[in-house]
Amino acid sequence: MNIVVTDLAKEQLRMYRKDNNEFMRINVESGGCSGMTYKAVIDTTVNDQDEIVYEDGDIKIVSDSRSALFLGGLHVDYSNDLIQSGFRLSNSNASESCACGASFSV
């Protein structure tokens, strides 16, 4: 799967984790202006229906198998903006996204 995680995002993921067993979980849910939105959380449990969609050393991203279908081309970055800092998830395969960038469609 073609997922890119920037060095800054990796650094921030390391800071958010309490221990090496934690990873980022990204799921795709219905919602937003364009139809689908990403939900990203720090998690510790891999379920039977989950897939490891990205792994680089101590950095791991997991998703449920349905959501994984929409993660090819995902770019994970981190922004230190004063107004809205946090992880930025964008996908080059999205056919449309809303003006605020919070949702997409394929």
Report the structural category.
Answer: mainly beta
Question: Averaged pLDDT, please?
Answer: 84
- What profile does the largest beta sheet have? 4 strands, mixed
The helix-strand sequence is EHEEEEHEEEE
In the CATH classification, which architecture applies? Sandwich
Tell me, what is the CATH class? Mainly Beta
CATH homologous superfamily assignment = HesB-like domain
Report how far the terminal alpha carbons are from each other.
Answer: 17 Å
At CATH level 3, the topology is Hypothetical Protein Aq_1857, Chain: A
Poorly predicted spans: none
- Provide the domain count: 1
Which strand order does the major sheet show? Answer: 3-2-5-4
Tally of helical runs:
2
Residue fraction in strands: 35-45%
Shape type: globular
The helicity comes to 10-25%
Q: How would you portray this structure in words?
A:
With 106 residues, this protein is mainly beta. The chain has one domain: HesB-like domain (Hypothetical Protein Aq_1857, Chain: A), CATH 2.60.300.12. It has helices spanning 7-16, 65-68; strands at 4-5, 23-30, 36-43, 50-56, 59-64, 74-79, 86-91, 96-97, 104-105. The strands form three sheets. It has a four-stranded mixed β-sheet with strand order 3-2-5-4. Strands 1-6-7 form a three-stranded mixed β-sheet. Strand 2 (23-30) and strand 3 form a beta hairpin. The protein is globular and about 35 Å long. The two termini are 17 Å apart. 23% of the residues are buried. The model has no long low-confidence stretch (mean pLDDT 84).
